Amino acid sequence: MGKYEALAKDIVANVGGKENILSLTNCVTRLRFKLKDDKQANTEVLKNMDGVVTVMQAGGQYQVVIGNHVPDVRADVDTVIGKIEEKAEDKPAEKTNLFNQFVEMISAIFQPILAPLAAAGMIKGISAILSFSLGQSFQASSTYAVLNAMGDGLFVFLPIFIGYTSMKRFKGSPFLGMMIATALVYPGFADGSIAKTFAEHGGLNFIGISFSVPVAGYGASVMPIIAITALAAFLEKQLKKVIPDVVKLFLVPLITTLIVVPLGFLVIGPTMNLVSDMLGKGLIALQGFNPIIFGLILGFVWQILVMFGLHWALVPFAIISIAQGQPTTLLIATGMASFAQTGAVGAIMLKTKNKRLRELSISAFISGWFGITEPAIYGITLPKKRPFWASCIVSSVLGAAAMGMGITAYTLGGIGIFSFTTNISLDGDISGAVKKMILALLAVVLGFALTWILGFEDDPADIESKKESKKTSTTKLATNPSFSKQIISAPIEGEVLPLAQAQDAAFASGVMGNGLVIEPKVGEVVAPFDGTVSMIFPTKHAIGLISDNGLEVLIHVGMDTVQLDGKYFESFVSQNQPVKRGDLLIKFDIEGIKNAGYSTQVPIIITNTQDYAEIELTEKKTIKQNELMVTTYSETATELAVNPA
Known about the structure:
Elements: H1 5-14, E1 21-26, E2 30-35, H2 43-47, E3 54-58, E4 61-65, H3 70-81, H4 94-110, H5 114-134, H6 136-139, H7 142-156, H8 158-169, H9 174-184, H10 187-190, H11 193-197, E5 205-206, E6 209-210, H12 223-242, H13 245-289, H14 291-307, H15 315-323, H16 337-351, H17 355-368, H18 374-384, H19 386-404, H20 431-454, H21 463-479, E7 483-489, E8 494-498, H22 505-508, E9 514-520, E10 524-526, E11 531-536, E12 542-547, E13 552-556, E14 569-571, E15 578-579, E16 584-588, H23 590-595, E17 602-606, E18 614-617, E19 622-623, E20 628-635
Antiparallel strand pairs: 1-2, 2-4, 3-4, 5-6, 7-20, 8-9, 8-19, 9-17, 10-16, 11-12, 11-15, 12-13, 13-17, 14-16, 18-20
Helix pairs in contact: 1-3, 4-8, 5-7, 8-9, 8-12, 9-12, 9-13, 12-13, 13-14, 14-19, 16-17, 16-18, 16-19, 16-20, 17-18, 18-19, 19-20
């Protein structure tokens, strides 16, 4: 056992003991437990335990935040609990976790293809606008045919995309998932020509067992390919255990395909289509019972659902309807949420006396028009509380109005102002889009008005004087011979955000130390000072550095990017390697990380914050590599400037 033996034993005891632990992993700052029953954990005891920074629960994980020395604590925890193998019978009971598991699964499958889905929907919207404007002559042109192919192509072959993402989610071979999906959308089955050919001979059958294919084929389906790939991933794992390595490369996919594709046509496809139809009809019936009440409720809770990722329980059914060529009103009530949020931010922007909050509100107000509300929610309205609830109320009322007016979505499309094209009918009727535009404008106005009336707890009006006081204090420290300063240069180029806007509570709360966040424009991390690499995580997403004078810094690329297991990252240094300011440390693929569904925010934390009398952060909104980012002041008799800019 190591020096953290006592802490390790206390942690294990307070997460419910070894018997309550399904699995354990760690990232650069925290232990990530999967527990059988989270209720058995003593969260408050853990939070107040010496050596534990805080406790978080997210993504089905019970996260105990430790700090930079988490690998040492993990080693001692492993010694305490021994080897743990996750067994099926140990998994959380479905009655308490089935919904969460479903939401997580759907999110993982659909999130990577949302951008192309939206693009395809917008192309269909553009095609509809041109058809309305130019008439039948345009519809008869080859230009229309090309646009139609671009808009419809993804939906025709949607199972192939889902075959890849779902197989990846089930930890199988993604390209095998695509191969299986191609059988479902094979043209002869998709257009019904194969069924017609064999109609005179008793219909379709496989080795004597009859089956049928939906009239529209499986090209517009979602649930069948998800179920089929779940089976394929399981079967693939079992086959890999028993088939010799010398023939495993081709025999595993061959046998898997020969088993799951026929089962898909004979059993899984028809069953999942039936289940999907029943669920879809259930939602439609709920809407039909009273669409206005449905809109009232969904409009109010939508932003809350999005915050917790629970909106994925509804999104697939809208995608299914659109893919099958059926207009839907399922998500119409949600369309006002971003506009109401934008109006609320507008009121804060004009009413606050806090200069920094006003600056944040301006950027959030602009992005809100384009449907990007995360900066508004997490950075402004939710912390202020009343503006957030004001936007929920407005979204609720206008969501009910949208349902009552019968606004319908004919395609998928963008968000914010780019969503209006989704409400143009395929024959060019723009009345639905016009109604939605009016409601959207009204949502902004009402969100603004209600927030203005309800008000919010503004930061004290003397915040600027506090800033001036801080500047005066910093100036005194800088000129005081008993204090020394150290300089941290920017390791990354990008937009500078306050630490409170980090999309992770452990960083945002400051418990890990003082610092800031950079939204990167270039996927490179360079050394911010002369020093040594104290730690680099095996997945290359995080690195710890210590300057020649003892300043400790953690650079964490992305949020939860430990889950990528090193994909999209490349490191150029090793642990204990000396580095000079500006040396290349890590390269990372910004778009790859985003497309995988992860935030690319980079918190830069001074982990030994307590050693400094004052830490002065840059006030720049954007910064380039090697520019002055942070100045620290510590009480000492010797000047310790580290690479002053």
